[in-house]
Amino acid sequence: MSEQLTDDARGAVWAKAGFSGLVVGLLVAAAVGFGGAVVPADPAAAADETTSSAVTLTNAGDALEPEGAPFPDLSVNVSQTRDLVSQGIRVSWTGGTQSERPAGTTGGANFLQIAQCWGEDPANPGHPDRRTCQYGGTVGAGSARDGNTGDADVAEEDAIYTDPSESFFVPTYTGIPFVAVNPEGIVDEKLAPADRVLNNLKTDANGNVVQKQGVEFVDLNTNPFFTAFTTNEVKWAGAGADGSGSVPFEVQTAMQSTALGCGAPVTQPDGTVAGQPCWLVIIPRGTGDSGSTEINRSGLWWDAWEHHLAVKLDFKPLGVRCELGAAERQLAGSELVAGAIASWQPELCLGENGSPFVLSQGSEADAMVRAAGTAPSPLAFTSRPLDLSRTADASDPVAYAPVALSGIAISFSIDRQPHPLEAPDEYKARAGLPMTDLRLNPRLVAKLLTASYVDSLPSDADKSHIGYKSFSEPGKNPRTIVQDPEFREINDPEWSAQIIVSASVADMLAPSGRSDLAVRLWEYVLADPEARAWLDGEPDKWGMKVNPWYSTNPVVNRTVNPTGQGLALPTETFPKADPVEKPDTTVSDPANGSGPINLVTWRPYTHSFADGAYHVLRGDGMLLGAWDQFAVPPKFGKTVRELFGSQKVIGVTTAPAAELYQTVTAALRNPAGQYVTPTQDGLAAAAAAMTPTLAQPKVVQFDQAASAAKAAPTAYPLTMPVYAALNPKQTDADLRAVYANLIRYAARDGQTPGTDVGELPPGYAPLPQPWVDQALAAADAIETGALPSAPPRGGSTAPVANRTVAPPSSSQQQQTTPAPIASAPTDPAATGDAAGDLVGAATPADPELGVSAAAVPAGLAAGLATALTVPLMTRIRRRSWS
Length: 882
What we know:
Blueprint: H1 8-17, H2 19-24, E1 27-30, H3 43-48, E2 55-58, H4 59-62, E3 75-78, E4 87-94, E5 111-117, E6 146-149, E7 162-163, E8 172-175, E9 178-179, E10 197-198, E11 202-203, E12 209-211, E13 234-238, E14 245-251, E15 265-267, E16 273-275, E17 278-285, H5 302-305, E18 309-313, E19 329-333, H6 338-348, E20 357-361, H7 364-371, E21 379-382, E22 399-414, H8 425-428, E23 439-440, H9 442-449, H10 485-490, H11 516-526, H12 529-535, E24 581-582, E25 597-598, H13 599-602, H14 609-618, E26 624-628, E27 635-638, E28 648-654, H15 655-660, E29 664-665, E30 667-669, E31 675-676, H16 680-688, E32 691-692, E33 700-701, H17 707-710, E34 719-726, H18 733-747, H19 769-784, E35 852-855, H20 864-869
Parallel strand pairs: 19-20, 19-21, 23-30
Antiparallel strand pairs: 1-35, 2-3, 3-4, 4-14, 5-13, 5-17, 6-8, 7-8, 9-10, 11-12, 15-16, 17-18, 21-34, 22-28, 22-29, 22-34, 24-25, 26-27, 30-31, 32-33
């Protein structure tokens, strides 16, 4: 059996690539998306937004066997099929039937299953071999690789994988083996006929069973290759009443699934290197198959499998793109620029001053201190100017070159769960389908950041400090944001019919560490007078109060911060300030007790902003699992991610990461009172309304309190510029020339939106022309060793049509303590002149959606473990600058 999948080309893939190449150079991408807006409810609308490699499949034209298929008119659109990396793609369809969710012993009814496979079926060219599909890891009815059935229900194509019944007590068993791509394998030989095959049956050359299951049983669903924690399969993707649906799908490379091997570098006959291709398979499931009137048998069994649709997936090759042996150059600071740097990297290796780069993501403030010195340092990437209080100089010696325009995003994946009795029938008909529109104002963001909802604190912990005493005396703080009257007031009425509860919608996933992004998010909150008053201890009109450990007000006669000091905001972090703890009960209750749970254990940090989007894509709210008293030492486990139909998670991320992982983003209220998502137009509109910071006129920001921001109704409020920054007096002239080369490329060719190598990936907006001029002038200054004596050509450093701007607000002064509430208007309104067009070239049209990626050079071995388990967006070495 396994010999059918073995040939010289496949056997040579891993020998030629070498896993060392995968370790030292991980592919990076900024990928497909829908402009950061909500997922289109109509798949036809989604089709208009797809990339040039989008593919539409139909049952009539593409199914292996269209006759007898559950959905004769099924049409499936796959948003991207080429230049893939570790990312999300979107699968949308029409022509289905309204779905029923899984329940008990059935996997549901009238739905699709989606999986990734690596090998082609020798008997059916143009279709994947079902033995090579990553399927079965989620376990459950209708989604396993194996199971029992009656002899008469076994299809002829399944007979080779079947052990017929010998008695009433030993029913007929069918198990579709899994064949991994990597020939070295990791499976004990005694469990399988070949190292890389999981199988419960052995057959002879004629296909006859020579060893039956039960002798050396292999669990085909929970195995060394993939588990419920790592698999990317979709076991249930539901359609609405009109038969249409849309879900994101996580595409995995060899870095996430060695058994699939997708993207492993393969040398072509012409000497070029390509990524090993794979397959995407869509299996329609009706109301029953394989002799059953329910969906409780495997989608890999022939009765279901014969109706599958599939498309080949082409991957960018994993590995080093720059010439081996070239000296690595260090970059440090903002995660926000990582996707762009990754796309530009191959082009930056070329030319006289070409070089591979390694970006150490971490505190921008720390990176700036090093970049401000005269000793050679990494080129810093920042969104705020140098903090002069941390240097010995009285003036800022740094040249600032704008290189990227993007922003913070809040992603969510929340599936409908309407009240079974009170919800209208039209809402009940959409049960299990994703909510695609969510609005947040600054005070709601503050609530998610401050552990103020009841479910954000550990179960069985004392929650009386937020008003909760018991189920019968819950207080006025809602369980989650979904039950918050303020949330329901500004969102679609359908939200009010939902009974969604979970810790993962009582807060939002956020990264540890320090960053400019955290500062900007807190500044967004503090600029709103209602949000600031709430943080200061004033309840909202429904009575909800801030968790006192997060209160900015220490005054005794009001909401008191138990520390005796108000929480200093804005801050560079997302603190877990509440020391609440569920006590250890293992001694008092040895049989059922569990260990202590604090806020970090209950709601852990993500590894990065990009990691937040990845968890949202997977529906993984990072919920705490059950206590394992038999572990050594005893510990809590991790809850398996929730699958489509029951997902509920919110996470703070970046616009490029949201695009990469195809997550839906919340619309945020801007200073003009409008709710805007991080589209390219929204980012560009915010750039047009930015004003200079008080500390450094060459660094601009979207000041929430400025009149220009209040007059920009289409501006996305969490838009941020990223600057490359360095002291031109640094002593290494060669290194400065390399950095200048990077800046020039970033500001010119690197601002072309697109998905090819060297282009500006989705999630970014092109720089306004004055910013380009400033960047080029800064690059000249860095290379020549002297700051420019005159403003860059084009005039202003800020991209506003009218250079008469409001005085800098308190948020521009980077204070650690917020200014008095009275200094802000009580009701932000759109005042002043409307924001004009960008100076210089017109804002480019939205780019084609797709993927752009590049690998980084050697030096990632230390981060291998993390890279293999958490596919960070950038694939660039990440260090902590604490």
